Amino acid sequence: MKLTIFGASGRTGTHLAEQALAAGHDVVALMRNPAKLTLRHERLRVAQGDLTDEAAVAEAVRGADAVLAALSPKIFGGPRDLPLASGTGDILAAMGAHGVRRLVFSWGPSISIPRNPLLRALRSTSFALFGLLPATRSMVNESVEVGEAIRGSDRDWTIVVVTAPNDKPGSGRVKVRTGTGTGDRVGSRISRADLAQFMLAQADDLRYARQELRISN
Fold first, then answer.
1. Strand-pair partners of 190
2. 26 has which bridge partners?
3. C-alpha angle with apex 96: 94 to 99, nearest 5 degrees?
4. I need a surface site. Which of 23, 62, 70, 147 has the fewest CB within 10 A?
5. Strand, helix or coil at 161?
6. What is the DSSP letter of 23?
7. CA-wise closest residue to 144 among 130, 164, 165, 163
8. 102-106 β-sheet, strand order
9. 122-151: b or e for each residue (b if 16 or more CB lie within 10 Å)?
């Protein structure tokens, strides 16, 4: 497959790129600063560009069989213009323009928070409080907008929600719970290597299409 990866230089994204290449896939990684990705491979193309650059995002997505994104907001003092939310919109628009259907997107627990303040408070009091604090308001608002953009799209998306990823070696064992409450009883911790392996497996598997999943080790 040809995979486009956003966030390839991050702690999860690096695992994604390495595992994808090891599995024989072709990878395009869009990065603001290509020097941050030290990985080199004949099937890896690193394109320079920002998520808010519509043309760069569209070029990175063109021809892909699936798009994988491992992104995370700045928890404290994030930008008010919510660039990752805008970038997610650019990714979805590019996928629509080029006929790319599969999106596997990992963010964090706050992506499941709805925009409505009352529903947000009912869903998670702690994140409701974060949304009221100036230092963390951007993180909450950006997470909400990213989640709503993906859910509102017509792509074959899967949102992979994790709480506390770590850098332990991969175990090959992942517990999965769907948004409807079926599946395993999940905890909070997961190896980034296992998270990447799970995401990569979903690239050509539609079993969880248009679903939000919580996963852990």
1. 165
2. 2
3. 105
4. 23
5. strand
6. T
7. 130
8. 44-48, 26-31, 2-6, 66-70, 102-106, 156-161, 211-216, 175-178
9. eebeebbebbeeeebebbbbbbbbbbbbbe
Q: How far apart are CA 51 and CA 32, in angstroms?
A: 8
Distance (Å, whole) CA 28 – CA 23: 15
Please state, in angstroms and as integers, the Cα–Cα distance from residue 27 to each residue in 34, 51, 52, 65, following that order. 14, 17, 20, 10
pTM of full prediction above 0.85:
yes
Measured in degrees and rounded to the nearest 5, phi and psi for residue 184 equal: -80, 165
**Furthest-apart CA pair in the chain: how many Å?**
51
Token pair for residue 159? 């949102």
| 217 residues of the chain, pLDDT tens digit each | 999 999 999 999 999 999 999 999 999 999 989 888 888 999 999 999 999 999 999 999 999 999 999 987 665 455 565 678 889 999 999 999 999 999 999 976 555 555 555 554 545 545 555 555 555 566 677 878 888 899 999 999 999 999 889 999 999 999 999 988 899 999 989 999 999 999 999 999 999 999 999 999 9
